[in-house]
Amino acid sequence: MSDAKEGQQHPLAVYLWIWLLLFVLSTFSYLVDYFHLHGMLRWSLIITFMLLKAGFIVAIFMHMAWERLALKLAILLPPLCLLILIGFMAIEGDYTFLTRGAAFLH
Amino acid sequence: MAHDAPATALGPLQQVAGDFGADKQAFTVPWGKAMMWIFLLSDTFIFSCFLTSYMNVRISTMKAWPNPSEVFALHLFGQDIPLILIAIMTFVLITSSGTMALAVNYGYRRDRRRTVMLLCATAALGATFVGMQAFEWTKLITEGVRPWGNPWGAPQFGSSFFMITGFHGCHVTAGVIYLLITAKRVASGFYDRKGSYETVEVAGLYWHFVDLVWVFIFAFFYLW
Lengths: 106, 224
Description:
- The complex is a heterodimer.
- Helices cover 74% and strands 0% of the residues of chain A.
- Chain A has helices at residues 12-34, 39-61, 69-76, 82-105.
- In chain B, helix 4 (84-108) runs antiparallel to helix 8 (198-223) and helix 5 packs antiparallel against helix 6 (156-187).
- In chain B, a hairpin with a 2-residue loop joins strand 1 and strand 2.
- Chain B is globular, with a radius of gyration of 22 Å.
- The interface between A and B is large, with 57 and 63 residues.
């Protein structure tokens, strides 16, 4: 083999720490349900733990942190247009809800 | 910055422009890895469509949404523990993600025995996850959950549940088969003859993605 390192090679400790961190974050998100937290506190905690977990999986386990910027942009930017879909569908859902409510009132 | 510096001093955007604009291969990774990433990007859109449609029906339904915390509770040790099966499934999948990451690492170290063992452990954990999901489906179907209705409220609960977890379960099942084939190839020395263990990393990308999707399903379907 050549001297250049093949693929993504990193110290084991990096993976073990992230592994531990994912366990801790999963426990936290389970505890949110276990302690019956409600309202904005519940939703913000769920979203925070979810994004942290997703970020660590993509960045470290899937090695995205060490890839070149061209690959990062090509893979991570397109999903942003999903925000538009989510926004539209939320508005659409509210509208359907109101329409159904109006139909039931007649 | 300095004009005598080598190409590494290029700004990040100049580097991107060079990668895409120059008359060369755009992504400096093996083609298998680039293709796997593009496949995962398309899969991201599929799962996002499922989760978005779930959000849409949950917003628009006139009936109360069944409380997942109670629906997925298990009666253990004389008391109802909320969401416990899903929590265990989450930990099983995260454990499998860890063993997968280590398998990729040992593959690059040419440690065939450990790589095969870790790949098989990952596949076994994946199979455990699918088994628990089968148990969960059986439990809910016995309790009367159908794609068109359930005893607790909004009928859309069943269709969203079966669609999202079913599609994810199919991905895990496919992943288990994929990992076992990869393990067999590692064991036979296929990648040593090929001179590259990057295929193991590509299999790892798929497996981590399955875990990644579960993170979102866990947050939006089970915890919300």
